Each structure stands twice: as structure tokens, then as C-alpha cells.
Amino acid sequence: MSILYAVGLFTLTIAAMEGVAYVMHRWVMHGPGWFLHASHHRPRTGFWELNDLYFVIFATPSIALLLLGTSGTWGMWATWVGAGIAGYGAIYLGFHDIIVHQRWPNRYVARSAYMKRIVQAHRLHHVVETKEGTVSFGFLIAPKPEELKAELKRRGRAGVRAPVGERAEV
């Protein structure tokens, strides 16, 4: 396999993973997998949350492809696809857990129009604490925040988390 083909396959896999992530987030995590993902739409009570199991679930195909590819069982294409999935996972970790949710404290401030857009879109996704009514399921490609706000308003703000000062005591 040529290095050009390998790098192309790796890059194509990273790009395709945004579509896979959208589908999984929209129809699995906000569908039958909500029992794990619901913890991510609630205020954090510790470092770990049940939603973190998705990291293991989504890493499994990458690990399997890397093992099958490097062992020669499936060929080098599997290695590069597995590496692309892992690459997307690393990008996701950096964007989602480090930049947006600041699970590891940092001083990053989004300055570019692109970063501001995806950070704000993800935050708008999290204003809804129910599995229905959520907007913006992608991670690296997101609609304009104005469009997302209009959609939330159109839905009557169904499922939108009340501001901190207005929450009922449990």
C-alpha cells in the first residue's frame, strides 16, 4: 500500500467519522442509549459519568481494526481505518472534553469564527436536558448558533434547562 493511499484512507476515515458520530449521537445516544447519555445532560457530580462508557464502546472498532490490520489478518487498510477512527476520537476528546466541557482545566478561549461556532453549537445542544428537543448533534460541523436558537424557540424551548437560580430544590 502506498503512503499516499494510506494517508488518504486515514483522512477520509476521520472525515467520515463526523457522519458516524452525528448518526450515533442523534439516533443512538438520544434514542435507546439515552440511559448512558442522560448523565451528560445533567450537572456533573464528579469526574466520571455514565456517558463515559461511550468512549470505550466507540474505541472498540478502532482497536479491533488496528489489531486485525497490524497482524496481517485483514490487510493494511484496516490499520489505516482503525487509525482514522482513533484520530477522530483524539480530535473529539480535545474538542469536547477539554475545550467545551473543560474536564481538564485550561485557559483556552475560542477566538476563530469556526471554533466559536462549534463551541456555541455544542453548548446550545446542552441547554436541553431531555432526550427529545435537542439541537446540533455533530461535533466538528455545526449549524449557525442563530439557527439553533431559532429552532429551540420554535419548539417552545421544550426540555430547556431552567437557569440555575430558577431550579426547583430536590
Provide a descriptive summary of the structure in words.
The structure is a single chain. With 170 residues, the protein is mainly α. It is 58% helix and 0% strand. It has six helices and no strands. The chain has helices spanning 3-29, 34-37, 53-70, 76-100, 113-126, 145-154. Helix 1 (3-29) packs across helix 4 and helix 3 (53-70) packs antiparallel against helix 4 (76-100). The relative contact order is 0.12.
Please specify the SSE layout and strand pairing:
Layout lengths: L2 H27 L4 H4 L15 H18 L5 H25 L12 H14 L18 H10 L16
Number of strands: 0
Low-confidence stretches: none
Distance between the termini: 60 Å
Instruction: Name the helix and strand elements from N-terminus to C-terminus, one letter apiece.
Output: HHHHHH
Q: Give the rounded overall mean pLDDT.
A: 91
Strand fraction band?
under 5%
Task: Give a brief rundown of this model.
The protein has 170 residues and is mainly alpha-helical. 58% of the residues lie in helices and 0% in strands. The protein has helices spanning 3-29, 34-37, 53-70, 76-100, 113-126, 145-154.
